[in-house]
What we know:
By secondary structure, this protein is of the alpha+beta class. Among the domains are: 119 residues, Beta-Lactamase; 107 residues, Beta-Lactamase (2-Layer Sandwich), CATH 3.30.450; 154 residues, Reverse transcriptase/Diguanylate cyclase domain (Alpha-Beta Plaits, 2-Layer Sandwich), CATH 3.30.70. Helix content is 43%, strand content 24%. A hairpin with a 2-residue loop joins strand 12 and strand 13. It starts with 13 loop residues before the first helix and ends with a helix. The structure holds ligand C2E and calcium ion (CA) (2 copies). The site of one calcium ion has 5 residues, from strand 23.
Amino acid sequence: MTEPFSSTPVLSYRDLLEGSPDPLLMIDSGGAIRFxxxxxxxxxxxxxEWLLGRHYRTLLPGRLQGRSEGQWDVFGGDPxxxxxxxxxxxxxxxxxxxxxxxxxxxxxxxxxLNNVVATVRDVSERKRxxxxxxxxxxxxxxxxxxxxxxxxxxxxxxxxxxxNERFANMWGISKDLLNSHDDSKVMAFVLDQLTDxxxxxxxxxxxxxDPGAESLDLLHFRDGRTFERYSRPQRVAESIVGxxxxxxxxxxxxxxxxxxxxxxxxxxRQAEELKLLAFRDHLTGLANRALFRDRLEYALASSDRxxxxxxxxxxxxxxxxNDVLGHQAGDEMLIEVGRRLLPCVGPGDTVARLGGDEFVIxxxxxxxxxxxxxxxxxALNVPFILHGRDLRPGVSVGLISADDxxxxxxxxxxxxxxxxxxKAAGKNRCLRFHPDMMTALLARTDLETGLRTAVEHxxxxxxxxxxxxxxxxSVTQVEALVRWERPDGLTPPSDFIPAAExxxxxxxxxxxxxxxxxxxxxxxLLKDGNRAVAVNVSAVQLREPGYxxxxxxxxxxxxxxxxxxxxxxxxxxxxxxxxxxxxxLTLLRGEGxxxxxxxxxxxxxxxxxxxxxxxxxxxxDRSFVSVIHTGEEDLPILASMAVMAHHLGHRITxxxxxxxxxARHLLRLGCHSLQGYLFSHPVPxxxxxAAILGATERIKDLGITL
Length: 706
Ligand code: C2E
Ligand code: CA
Ligand code: CA
């Protein structure tokens, strides 16, 4: 292989040129290629053995040779032109016939001015990226034009450099105005549309004072539109050359947000309303249980509990209003009650309905609650017309004052106990809680528990008290009196009958008494058809629709005539609105059974009503008998009771006769029968024959008969 440079000074660079990553070739003044490095070999695809000595034209496409030759010829011609010639853009021709863009740099070889070194660079890649850049630029401008944002570019000294069409449209700026580059005119046009022109101008000022700053703010138009304004510096390399403003019309979005905000506010209001409803009693509009509990807890949380009281109210006999007049009337009554309670308390107090006919009042700053309680009871007692009836609502109130230890549930329980006591004490009153009430309550629950199993445990027995007949001076009747023999002793009827009535247990107990009585007295009754046994019956029993049938079945099972049974009822039975009570009594009387009105004179029904009542016997209450001392005193009520009874054709029995004076006086008044300790105490069945004998002797001893 020929080494043309082996003897020239250039050769000292040979190794260097050979190793260069850039394609290099050396051309002599005649245009012949004298050197060709490995990188050039790779670029053109020619082997250098083949190329060396050939004209450089070999490396240029034929179509360009004429044009390019001139340039290449520069190096072969005028020595002044043999200066460095950089950045010639030509096309190269590869051995395989393909072309490529190349950039050629020419440098004279100083050691041999006739030679020139050409550095060739394949610029296909750069050409490609130039095309990509152009494409990108057109994309950017297309994007700019199609973007929803209006864009304005302003130079650093405040001149309009450009704007997209959207900008002009959004602001309604004509092309002419924009192209006029009269910035102050454009600014005036812009400002005129805004609600807060000063703020806009100030912002613009600020931003030009601080070229590097970015900002985002809202512009409000007089026509109701809202723009978002974004401003950022325009940079070229590191320096700021201007500012780009972009505007976005967010009117629709703002409106949607406003609507959403309004809707949310409305929802919140509704939620608030619902929350309020959740704390209101729907019928009366008073606070409900939940709200009351909240307020009570809150009140109790205060350091000073003086002045805090709870009044628990339960309407008296509300069930009757509901039963007799219907639920709507009941509701009206509850509403009226709420209306009356509110004015009785102060603005800081709470009146709540707990449910049913139960109300509760929380007083938070009342030194003495008693007058308030009295006011409440009085306010309710005022009559009001409901469905054509004059009603006088009564209320039983339990009062408890907060002390330093009681929690809300304790307070409520104590108020409840006091209320219960107010009911037991005769209703329509307020009772303040007292610890004794707790004991009473415990005893009551204990009593009820025991009563539940009394019948099945055989603890119910019957004692009998002889009743002497004045006409025959003999015992023709006995009264059956229930006894409850508990393991720890005898419990008197007055202690458990009310509880038995309240719980309904009286039905089973009453039946037990009747069954035992029939069984035990059947032999005595059979001996004489004039003999009879009196059994006490409570209104609760008569309210049971099957009561009359059961009585008749029990009698016939024991083989006892109806005429030998007397049912003792109290006046309250005839006040009970249940219509089948009188129907049952009528049915029983139809079977010969007699009805006695017990405790006569103690009730509050007028004597005048006596004639309407289906009874056969009046039992003058012990309280009228006990006032007889000498038998000589003037007792007009007792006398008129006797007259009335005779007049109505009822037989009269006097009970509680303890002295001969009482007996004589009662007999003088025309009582047909007498009953009391004077003749005999109530005795267990085994002692009854002896008691009857004793009683008979007693009346004979008195030596008085009518
Ligand atoms: P009551 O029907 O008025 O019964 C008369 C009560 O007076 C009985 O009390 C009797 O022991 C008492 N007594 C009799 N003679 C005298 C007397 O001379 N002086 C005094 N101070 N008291 C006398 P007891 O047995 O305690 O009965 C009380 C009440 O219990 C009865 O009053 C009656 O209302 C009720 N009761 C008793 N047994 C039954 C029953 O089987 N069923 C129902 N529903 N109530 C009953
Ligand atoms: Ca009785
Ligand atoms: Ca009685």
